[in-house]
Amino acid sequence: MRAIAQRRGALALALALLAAATSARQTAAHARARSALSRAAPAGRRAAVRFSAVDARRDDELGPLHPTVQWLPPLGSEGPDEGSAEGSITLPIFPLGSVCYLPFTSHGLNIFEPRYRALYNDILFNGSRRFVVTMVDPLTGRLAKTGVVFYLDELKEVSEQTGDSVKFVCQHSVIGCVEIERVLNPQVWRTRETYLKARVRQRTEPCEPDAPPCPLETEVAAAMERVVALQAETNEMPRFTRGMLKALNVSRAPGGEALWRTVGLWHALQEQRVLSVQAQMQADISKRVVDHLKAKGKAIEGGQVRLEDLPPDVRADLARIQEGYRAQLEELAHAPYGEPFQLLLQADGHEERLALFLEMVNGEAERLARRASLQKLFDKS
Ligand SMILES: *[C@@H]1O[C@H](CO)[C@@H](O)[C@H](O)[C@H]1NC(C)=O
Ligand SMILES: *[C@@H]1O[C@H](CO)[C@@H](O)[C@H](O)[C@H]1NC(C)=O
User: Signal sequence: where (predicted)?
Assistant: First the structure.
């Protein structure tokens, strides 16, 4: 399948990884900048498929009480149109893969496909400057019912500089959350003659400035503190700084902004972890190959080695290295890609979202606690 849009900044993302921020403000800004750089290196996206497959299995085992992602019917198999509900509007849809985008983040996209050039032309022409981005189920291709609204902040026409391989470079802010009621032209998904449009309903969080703080807020804060302490104890990289805790706020601020910003930090950390594990694996693989070449007295030419030129024992070692890391990657159950974050997006209000987020943070605390006790065991022996 042809990629719809290239994501920018994957490299910068990887480099930002190890630069631990020093102050709370900086940590927050970094995380925001990182999520602004959009999500996925191709390898990460491949991993996404596996993670959501794992999650889907677990959901089945846990039964109907555990929330699962709400998907629209497969495109082209919609039931009869029941007409539009009050307050619904029509917006273009731009599905961007099996990734969940979060409110209060910003993202860059490179646009080259003709149907999406048309989309940008249309939303600029009528001044609405917005479209809906929703997650695609990696297993079935269905669209998630809950998506976010991308607002076009800036568009640069770059056909000349790129020899027409990229037409527009666009910057967007995520300004809201919608529920998709109905895709109006599902047939164009297959033909690609134009972009999808849907009738959507704005989802607004009730604004209750006087509502008492939800007890779960304290629990989330405590769980985050535990994670930060365990990260330091186990020397986890990447990790949050202690200063980050000061910036932490999961209160019921208008529109849920405070909680979303914290979720954004969490998301950025998980994203960095996946990249970090991948980088370590790459380094181990290179080291094994270089050791082999050195032992054979061979020069390393231009860093290019073909797998089929390596002897069986080295190849077996490489397979073992990959296998070892695969377990680690699978352990990243709340990887930044896909379903866990989509569940937060579709959650019905502040409390439900807090409960889901608490589960994520507690899961991570447990993982780190297991690691800490393992390390202690090794230290003793
Ligand atoms: C602007 O154009 C888009 C794409 O055709 C459409 O979905 C949207 O409803 C239009 N908005 C307004 C305000 O006309
Ligand atoms: C969190 O943010 C809200 C709204 O911006 C504010 O009223 C509240 O005092 C903040 N809480 C903490 C602990 O900083």
Answer: 1-24
258 CB within 6 A, ligand 2: yes
Residue from 38, 36, 140, 55 nearest 99 by CA: 38
Number of domains in the chain: 2
- Phi and psi at residue 80, in whole multiples of 5°? -60, 145
Domain assignment of residue 197, given as a range: 70-203
d(CA 225, CA 183): 43
pLDDT digits (tens, 9 = 90+) for 50-60: 333 333 334 44
Q: Kindly state whether residues 335 and 315 are assigned to the same domain.
A: yes
Cis check: omega of the bond before 238, within 30 degrees of 0: yes
Asked whether residue 103 is domain-assigned, the answer is yes
Within-domain flag for 214? yes
- 219/191 same-domain check: no
Answering whether pTM is above 0.85, one says: no
* Residue range 217-231, pLDDT digits in tens: 999 999 999 999 999
Give the Å distance between the CA of 205 and the centre of ligand 2: 17
138 lines ligand 1 (CB under 6 A): no
- The band of 272, judged by pLDDT with boundaries at 50, 70 and 90, is confident
Decide if 124 is inside a domain. Answer: yes
Our answer on whether the CB atom of 253 is closer than 6 Å to any ligand 2 atom is yes
Closest Cα to atom 14 of ligand 2: 249
